[in-house]
Amino acid sequence: MIPKILISACLLGQPVRYDGKGKPLTHPAIERWRKEGRLVTICPEMAGGMPVPRPPAEIENGASGLDVLEGRARVLEVTGGDVTAQFIAGAEKALAFARAHACTHALLIDGSPSCGSVAIYDGSFSGIKHAGNGVTSALLEKAGIAVFSPADIDRLDALTR
Predict the structure, then answer these.
(1) E-assigned strands of the chain?
(2) Phi/psi-derived region of residue 82, left when phi > 0, alpha when psi is between -120 and 50, beta in every other case
(3) Contact criterion met (CB below 8 Å) for 73 and 60
(4) What is the pLDDT of residue 1?
(5) Whether pLDDT at 161 is above 90
(6) What pLDDT does 131 receive?
(7) Which of 24, 86, 99, 160 could form an S-S bond across to 48 if both were Cys, CB 3.0 to 4.6 Å?
(8) pLDDT digits (tens, 9 = 90+) for 115-145
(9) Prior bond to 56 cis, omega within 30?
(10) Got the DSSP string for the chain?
(11) Are 155 and 146 in contact (CB under 8 A)?
(12) What is the pTM of this model?
């Protein structure tokens, strides 16, 4: 059985990001995976009930997605709104969706408080990133699904051939 790959909807150009835009990733592997029927698309934030567009959100105090899952940190909007529950709900739906489709890997947009797997914003809304992962990435990894950022697509491609 060929491994399926959970992919951030924004990476396929869908206008689901907080600013109402997509962030399409162009790579030969994506087109091949699409033709092979291997891509399973989701936006965890929308799955958690968030609208498009929406205020930018970050995990507070330089914390990580695992901190959010374990109740040590919150996800806050730039306006001050607490959207932790929506981010956790979206992560849980993404995991259930990945399991339902037998995804063994995920390719998620980096920097996001949901999908980031290498670096995320530090919660100050000043554009500063730090090493860490988002809520969905943390939950997927905890469940044994390998998460990759767009910068690692060649490695993901090699692993899933």
Answers:
(1) 4-8, 39-42, 57-59, 75-77, 103-107, 119-121, 129-131, 146-148
(2) beta
(3) yes
(4) 75
(5) no
(6) 97
(7) 86
(8) 999 999 999 999 999 999 999 999 999 999 9
(9) no
(10) -PPEEEEEGGGGT-S-STTS-------HHHHHHHHTT-EEEE-HHHHTT--SS---EEEGGG--HHHHHTTS--EEETTS-B-HHHHHHHHHHHHHHHHHTTEEEEE--SB-TTT-SSEEE-SSSSS-EEE---HHHHHHHHTT-EEE-GGGHHHHHHHT-
(11) no
(12) 0.97
Distance CA(90)–CA(84), nearest Å, equals 10
> Checking phi first, is residue 75 left (phi over 0); if not, alpha (psi -120 to 50) or beta?
beta
Tell the residue number behind the tokens 């979206």, with chain if given.
Answer: 90
Please say whether the beta carbons of 108 and 97 come within 8 A. no
Structure tokens at 69: 């899952």
Spatial CA neighbour of 139 closest among 104, 115, 107:
115
Distances (CA, A) of 45 to 18, 49, 75, 104, 156: 9, 7, 12, 21, 23
Cα radius of gyration rounded to whole Å, the chain: 15
Amino acid identity at 117: S
> How many beta carbons lie within 10 A of that of residue 95, not counting itself?
20
End-to-end Cα spacing for the chain: 11
